[in-house]
Amino acid sequence: MSFQEIIFYLFSLTLLLSAGGVVVARNTIHSALFLVLTFFTTSAIWLLLEAEFLAISLILVYVGAVMVLFLFVIMMLDVNLAKLKEGFMRYLPIGALVALVMAAEMIMVVGSTKFGVENYPLPTPKPADYSNTKELGSVLYTDYVLQFELAAVVLLVAIIAAIALTMRRRPNTKYQSPGKQTMVKKADRLRVVKMDSE
Predict the structure, then answer these.
(1) How do residues 57-106 score in pLDDT, each as one tens digit?
(2) 112-169 pLDDT per residue, tens
(3) Whose CA is closest to 136, among 50, 46, 53?
(4) Of 41, 86, 91, which Cα lies nearest the Cα of 63?
(5) Which of 20, 22, 23 is nearest to 12 (CA)?
(6) Could you give the CA distance from residue 72 to residue 128 in angstroms, rounded to a whole number?
(7) How deeply is 51 buried, as exposed, middle or buried, from its count of CB atoms within 10 A (0-12, 13-18, 19+)?
(8) How many whole angstroms separate alpha carbon 176 and alpha carbon 114?
(9) pTM of the full structure
(10) If you compute the radius of gyration of the chain from its CA atoms, what whole number of angstroms results?
């Protein structure tokens, strides 16, 4: 067994244990931190598979932005941990059954002869100056440019819908009206008082 395979199995075992910790952890902050560990080990596996762009983007986007937001929201909310502990044992048999069915389906798909390595030729080794980020960008903006633009439009619509749903007019909140501010004259704001000198 080579050193790269040992590292791969070590990261894979860490990935499986941390993913299980996300589900099993009773504290929501511990669960979010297990998810951070899951993302890190996934990016390490992608680095071993020479997918540097995916590994770096996973760390930058998910660990750097999304998980910070998750931790901020979890810490700001007052989560009742007693109710979470009650519901865990209640739904454990159903969750275990669903997990076993999903594991059996994945073993049937991945373990079948149609998806084996022997059916596909091994990829040719790339030269030293090969950049998978450049290759990904060229494929994304030539072959899949329509799908990329459609995904961007869907995300834009989702952002606009989220802003429209959360914007509420609160009567007690003080806010400024830019239209009224630009219509103000000097006489409305300034009053010159003449006083005798002392």
Answers:
(1) 888 888 888 888 887 777 777 666 666 666 677 788 888 899 899 989 88
(2) 666 655 666 666 777 777 777 788 888 888 888 999 899 999 999 988 988 887 776 6
(3) 53
(4) 41
(5) 20
(6) 42
(7) middle
(8) 65
(9) 0.58
(10) 28
3-state SS string for 25-38? CCCHHHHHHHHHHH
**What whole-number distance in Å separates Cα of residue 82 and Cα of residue 116?**
46
Pairwise CA distance, residues 104 & 58, whole Å: 28
Q: How many CA atoms lie within 13 A of 10 on its CB side?
A: 9
Q: Which long-range contacts (CB under 8 A, 24 or more apart) does 140-145 make?
A: none
Buried b (16+ CB within 10 A) or exposed e, 164-180: eeeeeeeeeeeeeeeee
Residue 59, classified by CB atoms within 10 Å of its CB into exposed (0-12), middle (13-18) or buried (19+), is middle
Instruction: Please return the burial class of 38, using the count of CB atoms within 10 Å of its CB with bins 0-12, 13-18 and 19+.
Output: buried
CA distance 59 to 67: 10
Alpha-carbon span 140 to 147, nearest angstrom: 9
Short-list 48, 47, 40, 43, CA closest to 5: 48
